[in-house]
Design brief:
Blueprint: H1 2-73
């Protein structure tokens, strides 16, 4: 009877550990997916900021070029 009781307890412990491991895996996958999504959003923002910086630099170059031409006229 003691061996049967011990085996039943071991089976219950194994089932509980399997459920816990499965829930932990699901949580880890959700966190990883969320992290990947956030990383993609940050990359998109960074690309957008880079395009804005390029536009500002081209505007500054045009303004500088315009100022240089005005100076040459005087």
């Amino acid at each position: 009877m003691d061996l049967l009781y011990f085996l039943n307890i071991m089976i219950i412990v194994a089932i509980v550990l399997a459920i816990f491991t499965t829930l932990l895996l699901i949580f880890a996958l959700k966190v990883a997916k969320s992290s990947h999504k956030r990383q993609n959003e940050l990359m998109a923002i960074q690309k957008e900021n880079l395009l804005i910086q390029k536009a500002i630099l081209s505007e500054l170059k045009e303004l500088k070029k315009g100022n240089d031409e005005k100076i040459d006229l005087y």
